[in-house]
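Field reference: sequence -> structure
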Amino acid sequence: MKNTVKIPVIAMASFLTVFTSCSDDDDSNSSEIYLSEEETPETIQTYITTHFGDNSIVQTEKETENDLVSYDVRLSDNTSLEFNSNMDVIDIDGTSKLPNSVLPEAIQEYASTNYPNNFITDWELELDHQQVELDNTIELEFDMNGDFIRIDND
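Structure field:
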């Protein structure tokens, strides 16, 4: 009876060992370091001061993957921003209304006209389109000019 219990335990331990050793976390082409507010690049600090003036930087993570650098910044109101290697903002995730100054005017106009009781909480720049999320969790896609494409149902 003792051997019956040991076999599943040994099998599970072996499985976990193999599964853990195959993890992608050991990617040698990737590194992450945390920066203080003072170490955060000045361009990013200026963007945040300009558009999110009531907030402070809580954390900045600099990620290097395959020689491409990006920065993930979390603000005091839990808004998070991602900047690419050119220091351009490519993603903003919040829980409250995003400042109008960070959104393309055409997207603001579409959202306020078609969803007058809602506001934009998230904005993301993809390769060939932009996407926003409203406070009611509806996601809208726009082309690079800010023209409406569709409601994202994914």
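Note: Residues 30-152 form a domain with the Inhibitor of vertebrate lysozyme, Ivy fold (CATH 3.40.1420.30).
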